[in-house]
Design brief:
It is built from eight helices and no strands. It is rod-shaped and about 145 Å long. It has helices at 2-10, 21-40, 48-69, 74-101, 112-123, 127-130, 139-171, 174-249. Helix 2 runs antiparallel to helix 3 (48-69), helix 4 packs antiparallel against helix 7 (139-171) and helix 5 (112-123) crosses helix 7 (139-171). With 250 residues, the chain is mainly alpha-helical.
Length: 250
């Protein structure tokens, strides 16, 4: 059991990324980016299309890979999640450039549409919450919603990275966890060995006492057995003698 416990300490539990809000929003931003490019960026004439889709995909996929690698390596998890953030920033920059280059408008604080957008993006995380709008929003709306989602994802990921950073500081990486687990296992075995060695003389004494007691009971049994046999043979002889006497009288 001790060995199993140590092994579990070495390998961290697998994060359920589908339950994390920043992953859910990253799935939204990928599908939004794909729908946006499909509607507003020419398939062959603008290389931005591939860059936008790949940046969105890189964000989502690196979150998945980073969280999966976190089972064994916190260091690799931190690196991959930061790669996801870098891709996210690249994606946000592409959407901002689109607005600037097409002379569209950014939604700004104080506007009702900004407040509505911020409130919607804050409390809605699933693709099903956004997908019905992909065919309805203008390019300006899609860009602003995408930029806002990028901000939310980045903020959530930074909070998650801070938590991982603290875990790394306090627990260390895979090598340190392996060392602690192995050292802990050896210490448990050493302590068990000392305990057994300390108990051995007492057990040896108890065994000797048990053997002596058994020998005493064996001697008593043999004595009782001999007495019983003697009594049996005496009674048997008396019965034989009485039968002979009775036979002579008849």
């Amino acid at each position: 059991m001790a060995e199993t416990s140590n092994a579990q300490h070495v390998l961290k539990s697998q994060a359920n990324w589908d339950a994390l809000y920043f992953y859910q929003k990253s799935d939204v931003i990928y599908q939004l980016a794909f729908a946006f490019c499909d509607r507003f960026i020419h398939l062959y004439k603008d290389r931005t299309r591939d860059q936008v889709i790949q940046a969105a995909r890189s964000c989502k996929q690196n979150i998945v890979e980073g969280l999966a690698d976190g089972v064994a390596s916190t260091e690799m998890q931190l690196k991959l999640l930061n790669v996801a953030r870098a891709s996210l920033k690249e994606l946000r920059e592409d959407f901002e450039d689109y607005i600037k280059s097409r002379h569209l408008q950014f939604f700004i604080s104080g506007e009702q549409r900004y407040a509505d957008m911020l409130n919607y993006c804050r409390y809605h995380n699933r693709l099903s919450d956004y997908e019905p709008f992909f065919a309805q929003w203008t390019d300006e709306q899609m860009c602003n919603y995408a930029i806002t989602l990028c901000h939310f994802i980045d903020r959530m990921m930074m909070s998650f990275l801070k938590k991982l950073e603290q875990e790394f500081i306090t627990e260390g990486g895979i090598k340190e966890r392996m060392h602690r687990a192995r050292t802990g296992y050896r210490q448990q075995q050493d302590e068990r060995l000392k305990q057994l060695e300390a108990e051995l003389p007492r057990l040896k004494q108890a065994l000797a006492e048990a053997q002596a007691e058994a020998a005493k009971w064996k001697a008593a049994f043999e004595n009782l057995k001999q007495r019983a046999l003697k009594m049996y043979y005496e009674k048997e002889a008396e019965i034989k003698r009485l039968k002979e006497q009775l036979g002579e009288e008849i």
